[in-house]
Amino acid sequence: MLAALYRTAGDSGVLSVEEVRTPDPAPGEVRVRLRVAGVNPTDHKRRSSTEPDADFQVPGQDGAGDIDAVGEGVDPARIGERVWVWFAARPAQPGQPGRPWGTAAQYTVVPSRQAVLLPGPASYDDGAGLGVPAMTAWHCLYAEGPVEGRTILVAGGAGAVGNAAIALARRGGATVIATVSGQDKAALAQAAGAHAVMNYRDHDVGDQIRAHAPDGVDRIVEVALGANLELDLAALAPRGVISTYADDALAELPVRRLMVANATLRFVLIYGVTDEALDAAAGGVAAAAADLPRLPITRFPLAEVAAAHDAVAQGTLGKVLLDIP
Questions:
Q1: How far is the C-alpha of 162 from the C-alpha of 287, rounded, in Å?
Q2: DSSP type of residue 89
Q3: What is the distance between the alpha carbons of residues 57 and 101, in angstroms, rounded to a whole number?
Q4: I need a labelling partner for 277 at 20 to 30 A (CA). Which of 130, 179, 270, 284 fits?
Q5: How far apart are CA 233 and CA 206, in angstroms?
Q6: 89 with 61: CB under 8 angstroms?
Q7: pLDDT more than 70, % of the chain
Q8: Rounded CA gap, 108 and 102, in Å?
Q9: pLDDT attached to residue 93
Q10: The domain over range 2-130+292-323 is classified in CATH as 2.30.300.10
């Protein structure tokens, strides 16, 4: 098969596209003929900082395609299913080597539960954009339980995680407030279902949030904890939860203020949560997949995988996808 791969950590120049053996599904696995692969920040971060556990690593956690083979113990009736794939290169257990067969290739093999039926109205593009961002959003929102009747603040409502969080929270019966940095991004947050959208650069953004949530917000989905913690604390209701999913430096943690509010500060790295939590996130996303918003797409052919990684590293708005030949 044709696959993007790297043999050593480094910048995007370590990526190449080569012919490698097509993997066979092990017991409990399915093989997916990929059509589209998603590219996420975690892909270029892992490539730049972590040596492959095997002779090479095919990057990519997310993708969509068709099951073309199944391993022992998997119902053969799954062959032919249109599916979205989550966390293809994730280790089976924390601390174990990662799986080498990521989604930037013509085929990948994953445990059967990690290939989820793609709803009829959803395209391969839609499926390739789920996985990492949508499951992160779901876990940030629902790790503390249902959101019905609660007020949620989503920082970065135009990003892949933030946009999914708005839609998932709105679907769950929450009132959703989002912050963004400009009008184009505000339009994306509004389209996802935010009840109120404001520019976090406004000097009175805290007052604007409180105008919509006089008693404070119950949960915050946070993309930039270091930059936004003061705003988060000003907006948070007593016993509220801040779930932060991005690696953002924090100079000082105001422990006393968090204690007085009985607040929960939850750090989320979605790959490291329990299998039970991952299955819950995948199920929640699968139930909403047909209705999730469509962000702008920047697409590259597989042969230009390095440019796709660079585009994500540079903060391209929306989703970056790879077309698999």
A1: 18
A2: T
A3: 7
A4: 179
A5: 10
A6: yes
A7: 98
A8: 6
A9: 61
A10: no
- The tokens of 176 are what? 């959703």
Mean pLDDT of 29-34: 98
- Name the nearest CA neighbour of 46 among 8, 84, 20, 85: 8
Average pLDDT over residues 21-44: 97
CB 305 within 8 A of CB 104: yes
- In 3D space, the residue among 168, 165, 166, 162 whose CA is nearest the CA of residue 181 turns out to be 162
- 247: number of Cβ within 10 Å: 11
Average pLDDT along the chain: 95
Helices assigned H by DSSP within the chain: 41-49, 124-128, 131-142, 160-171, 183-192, 205-212, 225-235, 255-260, 275-288, 305-313
Nearest to 59 by CA among 83, 40, 36: 40
CB 40 within 8 A of CB 132: yes
Q: Give span(s): CATH 3.90.180.10, the chain.
A: 2-130+292-323, 133-271
d(CA 158, CA 178): 9
CATH 2.40.37.20 fits 133-271, yes or no: no
The amino acid that residue 164 corresponds to is A
Give the span between the Cα atoms of 272 and 295, in whole angstroms: 26
Spatial neighbors of 42 by CB under 8 A, at least 6 apart, are 61, 132, 271
